[in-house]
Amino acid sequence: MRDDLLGHAAVVAARNAGRAERERRLCGETVQALVDAGFARHFVPRRWGGEEGGFAELVARSAVLAERGCPCAAWCGALLAAHGRIASFLPERGRAQVWAHGPDARIAAALAPPAGTVLPVAGGLVLSGRWTCASGVDFADWVLLAAWEGRGAERRARVLAVPAGDLGVLDTWDSPGMRGTGSNSVFAESVHVPYHRTFLLADLTAGRPGAGLPRCHGAPAHLAGALMFAAPALGAATRALHLWTHRTSTGTGSTGTHGTVAAGTPAAASGTAEAHGTAGGTAAAAAHGSGTPGTGTGTAGTPAAGTGIAGTPAGAMAAGSVGVGTAVAGRGVAAGTADTLTRSSGEVEAARLLLTEAARRADTEPVTDRLVARNRRDAVLAVTLLATAVRRLADTTGPHEDEQGTTLLRLCRDVTTVASHGALRMEPAAEAYAAAVLRPAAP
User: Fold this and answer.
1) Backbone phi, then psi, for 234, in 5-degree steps?
2) How is the chain split among helix, strand and coil, in percent rounded to 5?
3) What is the pTM of this model?
């Protein structure tokens, strides 16, 4: 991904965030900026013109886009990439069809839980059913859907790649948070899908280790899936902490620069608080499924020059951290204010460290059940910390009549909605981690 185009995407997303909030979907200009920035092609095989990129890069870049631009745009960008990775599991002929016009095919998905049914017919399968929370389906070229095949003990879930034009879209997305993701429902009525545009969901879950494939194409679903969902929440929480710190240090709702923001905050790095505009705060958000903030499956780089973010994926996440600023010089800091700032800034930084390290492991360390479970655990813990931090900030903000206060509340709703996603639930992550750690050693 090119840094200048990521910066441009952030500017475009921030400018259109209010519209995304109102219309409950991204506008065409924002979607095109995401594609131009390289999100759709990030994991696409090089054979089809893609980048075969890394997980750490995507996690950091998505976090930057959420902080500087809009959490909903970051969510859809991360999923464009994630769904390109999933499509790489298709047989060769199916991949050739999906990327026939280049690596920037816009792919939506609804994979968890599987819904609908497929019936065998000559030359393939017939798909029928309804799926919820397919983020970005309104601008998709293709949709990946998981449906049940067979009955009883023979039943298994199959993923099918369907041209978006073969599906109907229902305008069902109306969440208090992540509103701009356009996570609407889709339905199929006896749609024919050839076998070469399908694969078993179990193959995605297990991955294809040792198959001589690029890391991103052989990884099991849970190695980095939750990390990609968590990245927009990191950017949104970082933005919320900046707003709260600036608002508290100045004692006003002004969006101007006052010189009292601690060095190291996004405003200090970029030179003005207005560098963020209403980025990320004007969208408010969702509870998805396999491609959405509230239920489903499965970020790094830099914005344009001058934004103060380091030039490497890990650097982008670390340098984007918010400093623990103080109140206006010469004025004491109330105990409650100091406690809120210390706890929330620490939680955001802890989440950043968890996600950064887990993303690094996803790209570099040998894949084992314990590594997969550990990464899933850390993504869930990180989002739990982020949700706790932004709720505390929102609860202690005071009157919200000003623009910054309103934006902070929207960011809180966005992070809370992301934390409700099925891939970020504590119970299944804890069960998987305990099973990996406590499993008896092989004799």
Assistant:
1) -60, -45
2) 50, 10, 35
3) 0.84
